Amino acid sequence: MPSNRNTQPHFVAALDDTPVAAVDRLDETEKARSTWADAWESLRGKPSFWISSVLILLIVIVALFPGIFTQVPPDQNCLLANSNKGPEEGHLLGFTRQGCDVYSRMIHGTQASVTVGLLATVIVTLFGVVVGALAGYYGGVFDAIVSRIGDIFFAVPTVLGAIVLMSVLPDRTPVTIALVLSIFAWPQIARIMRGSVLSARNSDYVTASIALGVSKFRILVRHVVPNAIAPVIVIATVSLGTFIVAEATLSFLGIGLPPQIMSWGNDINSAQTSIRTNPQVLIYPAIALSMTVLAFLMLGDAVRDALDPESRARR
């Protein structure tokens, strides 16, 4: 009769494993070819990803360290004698109607525009992910309330709602504009996250975790959210460019950032009167705005294609 002596230690070791450790080990074995690994493999071969990444990196460096790219103070040495003058030595893009350096204002205006876009994206993404994940996973009354509130805000266009609020707010700073844009933009992220969580919560790994006794909240944080957040990343990347355009729109209409804060929207607004006699005053900040938005749209498209299972299957 064969002895059970050799198999007993393995049985005891199996009993010693906790349910959470078993699930975590199962996750670790899947990391070799996870969704993120496949996405990175796809992104590395896309020229659009590298082009957009380089552009975004350059934009961030300009926003953080504008002094590297220009030594001319943007709000000083504005002489009316230089009004609408063309390019000259030390002033590559000429002067505005007030005699200010166009290139210096364009470089320093990057900071405010990017700050608004980045803050709004972070606020909307964090709030939308939390609310959408809780609503999608737990459902019930909370899900119904969040869905109805989201429908109300979703029915109001973001820019239109921001115009109404900004027209009555006395304080117009980058933080204020980011918060106002976030009020009307969060339902999109919340809806996408909710739908993604609804699909992920019926997966086999969730069923296995429940059978092993893992708490619902731990399942949501450790397993559901990481597997459901891919569509949110795509939308958040594209939304950053959208928020930058929204800030420029508000500033162009005169209800965004005040004139003393340099931004591309303010420069485009002030260039309206000189568009016929000095069009470069409007063209250059418009090009900077367009290139920034294009970079984030290109990155969003590349990430979307990399995270799309059907796209990976076709490859």
From TrEMBL:
<feature type="transmembrane region" description="Helical">
    <location>
        <begin position="175"/>
        <end position="193"/>
    </location>
</feature>
<feature type="transmembrane region" description="Helical">
    <location>
        <begin position="149"/>
        <end position="169"/>
    </location>
</feature>
<feature type="transmembrane region" description="Helical">
    <location>
        <begin position="49"/>
        <end position="69"/>
    </location>
</feature>
<dbReference type="InterPro" id="IPR050366">
    <property type="entry name" value="BP-dependent_transpt_permease"/>
</dbReference>
<feature type="transmembrane region" description="Helical">
    <location>
        <begin position="114"/>
        <end position="137"/>
    </location>
</feature>
<feature type="transmembrane region" description="Helical">
    <location>
        <begin position="282"/>
        <end position="303"/>
    </location>
</feature>
<dbReference type="InterPro" id="IPR025966">
    <property type="entry name" value="OppC_N"/>
</dbReference>
<keyword id="KW-0812">Transmembrane</keyword>
<feature type="domain" description="ABC transmembrane type-1">
    <location>
        <begin position="110"/>
        <end position="300"/>
    </location>
</feature>
<dbReference type="Pfam" id="PF00528">
    <property type="entry name" value="BPD_transp_1"/>
</dbReference>
<keyword id="KW-1133">Transmembrane helix</keyword>
<dbReference type="Pfam" id="PF12911">
    <property type="entry name" value="OppC_N"/>
</dbReference>
<protein>
    <submittedName>
        <fullName>ABC transporter permease</fullName>
    </submittedName>
</protein>
<keyword id="KW-1003">Cell membrane</keyword>
<keyword id="KW-0472">Membrane</keyword>
<comment type="similarity">
    <text>Belongs to the binding-protein-dependent transport system permease family.</text>
</comment>
<keyword id="KW-0813">Transport</keyword>
<dbReference type="InterPro" id="IPR000515">
    <property type="entry name" value="MetI-like"/>
</dbReference>
<dbReference type="InterPro" id="IPR035906">
    <property type="entry name" value="MetI-like_sf"/>
</dbReference>
<feature type="transmembrane region" description="Helical">
    <location>
        <begin position="228"/>
        <end position="255"/>
    </location>
</feature>
